[in-house]
What does this fold into?
Amino acid sequence: MLKRYRAAMAAKFADPTAIFVVDDTTFPKQGGHSVGVERQYCGALGKKDNCQSAVSVYYVAAKGHYPLDMRLYLPEGWLVDPKRLGKAKVPEAERRSLTKGQIALELLDRVRAKGLPGGLVVADGGYGVSGPFRDGLAERELHYIVGVTDEMVVFTAEPQWEEPRVGTAGRGYAAGWPRGRPGR
It folds into this structure.
């Protein structure tokens, strides 16, 4: 059914200028029996609480937008308990320790393997701060716009560091900022 859904949506909305949007979706839960439930940040509640978290990929094109794929994130507390995984009937192939960024890259690979066009990925800071996620997008020749935290230093080119030099009055050293220091 998912294959037919994707084919029907692609026939209507496919566009080489389309955008893939990566995001988390959280589901508040009580108890601990649903797959992946753990005390973690729950965006739906805006705080840390008992919930499931899923990585989702959406397709946004000029003619419309629609969800493409989603996969539950399995916290480490679940992965270290084979009995619990078995009781919840988690397939063996899904019992892997993956970051949300790794899950997002796998989902992108899966939907793009069907020939869905688009070359830009948009994601929030939860993904943007991950170097491996950004590197994975670059390896797939995808452009991206991602959020980052205010603590992250970003350069548009590899910085060229200068050795500190003695100040003109013989006291102190000049700062070794890279040429073209980015503004704050």
Notes: The chain has one domain: 2-146.
